Amino acid sequence: MAVGVLALQGSFNEHIAALKRLGVTAMEIRKAEQLPTVSSLIIPGGESTTMAKLAEFHNLFPALRDFVKMGKPVWGTCAGLIFLADKAIGQKSGGQQLIGGLDCTVHRNFFGSQLQSFETELEIPKIANEEGGPPTFRAVFIRAPAILEVGPDVEVLADVLTMKTAASHSSTQDQQQMKHEPVEPEERVIVAVKQGNMLATAFHPELTADTRWHSYFLKMVANVGEEGSSKIISRVEGSTGLYDPRPRMDLPVFQ
């Protein structure tokens, strides 16, 4: 069975391209009746409010919640993380529906606006141990959320240092002069977790040439024991390597 990618809005094409590089078939999911035909689901990054409105329009939320409750693997990236969270704060007026199931509290747009998007090296000991490659991952954060609290059954896979803003400067002129200067880290916030059949990342692995997060998710699919899962994992492990520094790009990616 194919890996489903929710294709309402956002970076679903980039996820499909990453799966293709691993030799795995992906299926675009836009309707509830398509969900039973896939072994797992990726909810991509995008504009979470827009995605929620489209999901409501297509009456997808009940089917998505049932999919999670069935124990099928689900991975949410950025907006997808917000969808999976049991609780989200910092939402737009009126809020939005959530799928839920992931025992955590997420802050929408925790890192700021589009102008505050950034890339950074994350330490990923578990992913590197299981998938090989370097001990860090170049993560792309775009209007990204962050996880503020997690429940006892949630495994933290990566965190990042938050940064103090320039708002503490005494004058508007000082703020303008200092806003682009380095500032000291304040505290660590969680940006990647796993709980049972759910994986969630606040960043966008699909926008890089490093496919280790995708191969990690595919092993979650295989471990569920769905019919055809062994074929998926054997194709991944039979490639030239789960981490290949040579880019094989179907779409533009960050290096």
From TrEMBL:
E.C. designation(s): 3.5.1.2
Top-rank taxon: Eukaryota
Keywords from the named record: Glutamine amidotransferase, Hydrolase, Lyase
Pfam families reported in the protein's UniProt record: SNO
GO aspect biological process, one term: pyridoxine metabolic process
Amino acids binding L-glutamine: 46-48, 108, 142-143
Claim: Hydrolase is one of the keywords in the record: yes
InterPro entries to which the protein is assigned, alphabetical: Class_I_gatase-like (IPR029062), PdxT/SNO (IPR002161), PdxT/SNO_CS (IPR021196)
GO cellular component, one term: glutaminase complex
Similarity section: Belongs to the glutaminase PdxT/SNO family.
GO molecular function terms listed in the Swiss-Prot or TrEMBL record: glutaminase activity; lyase activity
Catalytic activity: L-glutamine + H2O = L-glutamate + NH4(+)
Transferase among keywords: no
Protein name from the UniProt record: glutaminase
Active site: 78 (nucleophile), 204 (charge relay system), 206 (charge relay system)
